[in-house]
Amino acid sequence: MSAVVELRDLRHAWRADEPLFSFARLDVAPGERVFLHGRSGSGKSTLLNLVAGVLTAQSGAVRVLGRDLARLRASARDRVRADHIGVIFQQFNLIPYLDVASNVHLACRWSRRRRERAALAGGVDAEARRLLAALDLDPDALARQPAYALSVGQQQRVAAARALIGAPELIVADEPTSALDADARDAFVRLLLDECRRAGSAVLFVSHDRALAGCFDRVLQIGPVA
Ligand SMILES: Nc1ncnc2c1ncn2[C@@H]1O[C@H](COP(=O)(O)OP(=O)(O)OP(=O)(O)O)[C@@H](O)[C@H]1O
């Protein structure tokens, strides 16, 4: 099966004289779990934004499921993201006054494909509740709570459930464990990767914390351009 993500001769520079990173070639296979680390400021978030189609490549190509993101109109890029990528960013991007279940449902409101996949798995609400429980949140106690009333660690898990619902081919996660202590961090990563395996989702997980690297199939370092 062809790669979920392909990077080809990708370079990015915020300042013309200072290239941030370059990837001659990187393929992420279906279901593969990739850990990407690098020092603060090395460009990890920038790379994930390129893969998620939030930024467009200055030179080289980012392909997601064979589609070259830079060649798509903005609306088509948004569609690729909504249909095929589950995003867990540092700030979780939950809507604070919306309840937990509705925050998880959002991914299925933005994408018919994911709504249909969740429906096949038993229904959008049932799947949201299953994912919350799988991520160690009690859906009976929390589903109707507004997101703002949850702890940071709970909000991270809600964001993960929203990324996973509808089984997108790719999960991109940007430092989702930065606010957790070591035990909570390890448990969260284990649960997240278990659910990705169940859904067949590939994972691109970014962190500066190399202690997590052992949980992944492949470890890559992002660094300054030589
Ligand atoms: N929109 C932007 N415009 C200009 N420079 C930017 C922009 N976004 C990021 N940068 C710069 O690019 C560099 C890489 O930032 P990025 O957030 O990708 O790094 P990171 O590896 O994710 O860092 P951290 O681990 O601290 O989150 C930094 O020097 C940052 O200041």
From TrEMBL:
<dbReference type="GO" id="GO:0005524">
    <property type="term" value="F:ATP binding"/>
</dbReference>
<keyword id="KW-0547">Nucleotide-binding</keyword>
<dbReference type="InterPro" id="IPR003593">
    <property type="entry name" value="AAA+_ATPase"/>
</dbReference>
<dbReference type="InterPro" id="IPR003439">
    <property type="entry name" value="ABC_transporter-like_ATP-bd"/>
</dbReference>
<protein>
    <submittedName>
        <fullName>ATP-binding cassette domain-containing protein</fullName>
    </submittedName>
</protein>
<keyword id="KW-0067">ATP-binding</keyword>
<dbReference type="GO" id="GO:0005886">
    <property type="term" value="C:plasma membrane"/>
</dbReference>
<dbReference type="InterPro" id="IPR015854">
    <property type="entry name" value="ABC_transpr_LolD-like"/>
</dbReference>
<feature type="domain" description="ABC transporter">
    <location>
        <begin position="5"/>
        <end position="225"/>
    </location>
</feature>
<dbReference type="GO" id="GO:0022857">
    <property type="term" value="F:transmembrane transporter activity"/>
</dbReference>
<dbReference type="InterPro" id="IPR027417">
    <property type="entry name" value="P-loop_NTPase"/>
</dbReference>
<dbReference type="Pfam" id="PF00005">
    <property type="entry name" value="ABC_tran"/>
</dbReference>
<dbReference type="GO" id="GO:0016887">
    <property type="term" value="F:ATP hydrolysis activity"/>
</dbReference>
